[in-house]
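Lab channel / #folding
Pinned by the channel admin:
"Please post every new chain as: sequence first, then the structure tokens as a reply. Keep commentary short and put observations after the output so the thread stays searchable."

First post following the new format, from NK:
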Amino acid sequence: MTEAKAQVLVTDTLAESGLAILQAATDIVLDYRPGLKGPALLEAVSTADALITRSGTAVTRELVSADTRLRVLGRAGVGLDNVDVDACTERGILVINAPTANIISATEHTMAMLLALCRNIPEADASVKRGEWNRSRFMGIELNGKTLGIVGLGRIGTRVTVRARSFGMHVIAYDPYIAQTVADKVGAEMVELDALLAKADVITVHTPLTDETRGMIGAAEMAKMRDGVVLVNCARGGIYQEEALAAALNSGKVGAAAIDVYVEEPPGKNHPLLNAKNITLTPHLGANTIEAQDRVAVQTSEMVLEALRGSIFVSAVNLPFEGLSDSDAAPLISLAEKLGLFAGQLINGPLTKATVELSGIEEKLTKILTVAATKGLLAPHLSESVNFVNAQQLAEQRGIAVSSTIHPIPVDYTNLITLRVTAGKEEFCVSGTLFSEHNQRIVSVNNFRVEFKPEGYLIYTINHDVPGVVGKVGTILGDRDINIADYNLARGTIGSLAMAIITVDSRLDPETLSFLRSFREMKEVKLVKL
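Reply from TO:
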């Protein structure tokens, strides 16, 4: 039977380069309707597997709640102001954006705004077009020898640093979340915020808008700056307090400012910055280049397709780990998920606790492997979809305490993932390893040493260790035309209990399982699908 194609709805204009990628994909159906609003939008989203937007579509709780199929939201850009990320996370919807697509464009726009300020270019241009020739009125300043203060030394801040230094500027930076080595690499001096405010001739901000950065530079901070300081904001509206900035410009405390972003866009006709002195304003053009828009469209389209095809290694804002940097760990992630899926099908009763133990595995993978094991563990118990986005949240809602531990020195195996699960008074423990890049093996189940591939249909049995059990099981399966691909035995002490993991080519019907359980030697028989 042919698998149904995924439906991809695009509700904002997208560059042709991105549309071409979607149109060429043979496993999706593209519904391109830019400008879709109201009831028609709700109806279209209700049948979509993926939604791609820019800033024109408000992705609200109502919108994502009206749909039962939506798995992926692609925001063709960096900002997420129009997306209810929490609502998407609750529904297990992967929220993808393109955080690197506009880096160069935003960097260059920052430098363009700074140069325009320092050489009075907008005013001089307007003057010449009015038929004037007043050179002395437009006396500028050089960047060479000036101190540039950068608030936020991330992807854009570091690139601005490199370009500013090529103009002969001394760069100081404030960023409490960036290591000294980053500053050393680009030639910036790390300082505290107050020192930056006091020393800089020019200040530019390159931080996201968060509770911490909203309004972080107001009247009190501007009072600490040098008289005549030049301010630039091509990051996010609201980092500078707009009323305070207008007042500082009008008083002359701030010599000039260049602003590309605003708290409300577009700014209202009475916005304080529109009539402030010595200010250059642009309508949020930081990412508005042909190249950036092509990159945004291409990156978003490619990642939405990858996500629909099952990849978690995309630039998603609501994954509880950094997907892109962990793509080389795919076999370990898959193994952790299978360990959870195995345990989830075998343990009885409501789950209360899960612990992931890692041995000989990089510490940076702790988060993603824990989430993977949790996802697998929950899958057999939930009617709703569980994925890498909502696994942690669903575990918390069900009162499952999930934790992890690291053992840097391996024992017995070069790498080992152990999952311990508790349900009531019962504890279940399973361990797995990679013998090579893709050679997954489960090597221990509840203290039984065993070795088998975690794939396909598996019959799990616990029986009294007496003669004849293997023969009886083989006969029953053979009589029902169920082929045994692998038969793995593990024993405790002689005469106690034994465990078997039997890999078969097809699912067992309830009658066969019931028959196996009827043997007096059997204590437990379950079918597992991995």
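NK: The chain has three domains: 6-101+292-308, 103-281, 326-529.
TO: also worth noting, The chain is about 30% helix and 25% strand.
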